[in-house]
Specification:
This protein has 216 residues and is mainly alpha-helical. Helices cover 71% and strands 0% of the residues.
Length: 216
């Protein structure tokens, strides 16, 4: 009986250690950065230094990585859509009318002038899962108000975690699934994610209207 007790204690300690390791893994992997696809490079050169820092190493990048990890395993490959979207956002980023650059006259607000491409660049440097999450954010932003879209994101994150947890109980899973099932994203981070995607969506609509007027 004593041996069985020691085995149970050892197993419990092992589970705690695994949980602790996965929690730390969540924090570490969210800061991994990838090279953006070439179609997105013009956006990378036009985004303000402050926004680029946030997109590559800050909170928005961490949100992109976490969302990407949550949904990546079940996303269909859509390389053509990713490429076309990259070309489009780069076209907008290079347009002075749609994406003016901040100057000294703008003072401390110079880094916030123009289109907010933070979430796009964060997604582009975080992998295909993050890009899909950004495209979904753009779709939600076109239909729902900021508060509604943020609530939808909160529900999506909660439901996705539940799906992954059920999957772990039913079958053997890769460590990535274990880590993804423990991902937590605060509501304020999801609100920021929505706000950045919403800015891109608005600029895209403006671009379409301008092109329509020029062609008339």
């Amino acid at each position: 009986m004593a041996s069985i007790g020691r085995i149970a204690v050892a197993a419990a300690a092992g589970n705690q250690e695994t949980t602790f390791t996965l929690a730390n893994f969540n924090l570490d992997f969210s800061l991994i950065k990838m090279d953006a696809p070439v179609e997105y490079h013009p956006l990378g050169t036009s985004i303000s230094s402050k926004r680029k820092l946030d997109a590559e190493d800050g909170k928005t990048h961490a949100t992109a990585r976490r969302l990407g990890a949550l949904f990546a395993d079940d996303l269909p490959p859509i390389p053509n859509l990713f490429r076309a979207y990259g070309l489009r956002v780069s076209q907008i980023a290079e347009s002075p009318k749609l994406n003016p650059r901040g100057t000294d006259r703008d003072g401390p607000l110079a880094d916030y002038v123009g289109a907010d491409g933070t979430s796009i660049w964060a997604a582009a440097t975080s992998g295909r899962g993050a890009m899909a999450a950004h495209l979904l954010a753009c779709l939600l932003a076109r239909v729902w108000s900021p508060s509604q879209a943020t609530s939808i994101w909160s529900e999506l994150v909660s439901e996705r975690r539940a799906v992954l947890e059920r999957r772990m109980q039913e079958q053997t899973c890769h460590v990535n699934v274990l880590a993804a099932s423990r991902i937590e994203i605060a509501r304020d981070k999801l609100a920021e994610w929505d706000a950045s995607a919403r800015s891109v969506s608005v600029r895209g609509s403006m671009s379409s209207k301008i092109n329509y007027l020029l062609e008339r």
